[in-house]
Design goal:
Length: about 375
């Protein structure tokens, strides 16, 4: 039997199996208050999906993972979100989305702290502490030095105590500047602007002392001022008493070092005003405008997704659509595939056409409510 004929028979068999589930699917959605139009729309999306993804082993594996993640998020929300933020610490766009989810869940994400933070995001009671490796210009070797010094000599009392205890690899002007602007010394009650003003001088002095100590040339006055809180180096850089930066400058530096706002946000408190004028979040809008994935594999084999594009095509259900159920997936139209993949292309195209019709209806409805006229598809502006 030709492979194509075999594939068609398997697709028809899966389609018949799925058709048997429609009655229960319809009853469940009607019971939860969804209109028949929404039920039909979602079902039209599920049908082409069944042609290639309703394999029992595939469904079972994803079902187990879905159960695990749902269980962890429901029962260990802080630990789960800390692990999730750590997994995307190099992707600032995704980190911002998950940080907003933490705010929605009433989980506070605390700024990085040289006395509390580890390499990654960590759960601290009901809060999450920012990881030091997520700070710009701060590498793993720097964090290793900070954590080791903290374990050996206990907490850092102040800025001078920090510079005296950490190894020379940490005493780098760019690293210290990044930690200051990220708020890693805020718990010491130092003002960020004051530390930025003196950090270069302080680093130069402590680096010279550490280099001399490494070659056995101790300071003549070492050990005389141990009670002064300078770590026995006989040096202490005075921190000036100057006014802090204004809120926008402070948050600007914080966003520059962390990639997002953590301690505060310029629009905090205005969420309800913004939500009244929008129908989706930035994260949802970003997914809607993603370019469609090309269906070819590692060596040009048709009909297979490239791993780097797989997350775009197999996007999980989770985007809300006006007039439809919450789980509605917005799939973009997929370009025509080479010979041998026509069945998959046609099924995906039907799904895309269904969503496109809903988009058109939603835009027309919004225009009507606004009292204006919005040109339909194919009409001139």
């Amino acid at each position: 039997m030709p492979p194509t004929t075999c594939a068609v028979r398997w697709a028809r068999r899966r389609r018949r199996s799925l058709d048997k589930q429609y009655a229960g699917f319809q009853a469940g959605m009607l019971e939860r208050g969804y209109p028949q139009k929404a039920i039909d729309t979602l079902w039209e999306i599920l049908l082409p999906f069944s042609d290639y993804a309703f394999n029992k082993s595939h469904s079972a594996a994803y079902g187990v993972i879905t159960y695990w993640t749902a269980y962890l998020k429901a029962n260990y929300p802080t630990e789960y979100m800390a692990a999730l933020l750590t997994s995307v610490k190099d992707d600032k766009d995704k980190m911002a989305i998950y940080l907003n989810e933490c705010r929605r869940m009433k989980i506070q994400v605390l700024p990085p702290d040289v006395n509390e933070s580890a390499h990654n995001f960590t759960a601290v009671g009901r809060d999450i502490r920012f990881g030091l490796t997520a700070v710009r210009n701060v590498g793993s070797n720097v964090v290793d030095g900070i954590v080791a010094s903290r374990r050996e000599d206990d907490r850092f009392a102040d800025f001078n105590d920090f510079l005296s205890k950490v190894p020379a690899t940490v005493c780098n002007k760019r690293v210290i500047d990044s930690l200051i602007k990220a708020g890693a010394f805020d718990d010491m009650k130092h003002k960020r602007r004051a530390l930025v003003a003196i950090h270069e001088t302080a680093v130069d002095q402590y680096v010279d002392i550490k280099r001399n100590e490494a070659i056995g040339q101790d300071s003549l006055f070492a050990g005389l001022d141990d009670d002064e809180g300078d770590g026995g180096f006989g040096v202490s850089v005075a921190i000036p008493d100057i006014d802090e930066w204004d809120k926008m400058t402070l948050l600007g530096h914080e966003r520059e070092m962390l990639g997002l706002y953590v301690s505060d946000h310029p629009l905090l408190g205005l969420e309800h005003v913004l939500s009244n004028g929008t129908d989706c979040t930035i994260g949802q809008a970003r997914h809607r405008r993603e370019p469609p994935a090309q269906l070819h594999g590692h060596r040009g084999r048709p009909g297979h997704l490239h791993p780097a594009q797989d997350h775009q095509e197999r996007r999980p259900l989770g985007h809300r659509h006006a007039g439809g159920p919450r789980g509605l997936d917005r799939r973009a139209a997929v370009p025509e595939q080479p010979t041998g993949s026509r069945r998959r292309t046609s099924s995906r195209t039907r799904s895309s056409g269904c969503v496109a019709r809903l988009d058109t209806e939603r835009e027309a409805s919004q225009a009507a409510r606004a009292g204006g006229h919005r040109p339909g598809p194919g009409q001139g502006q």
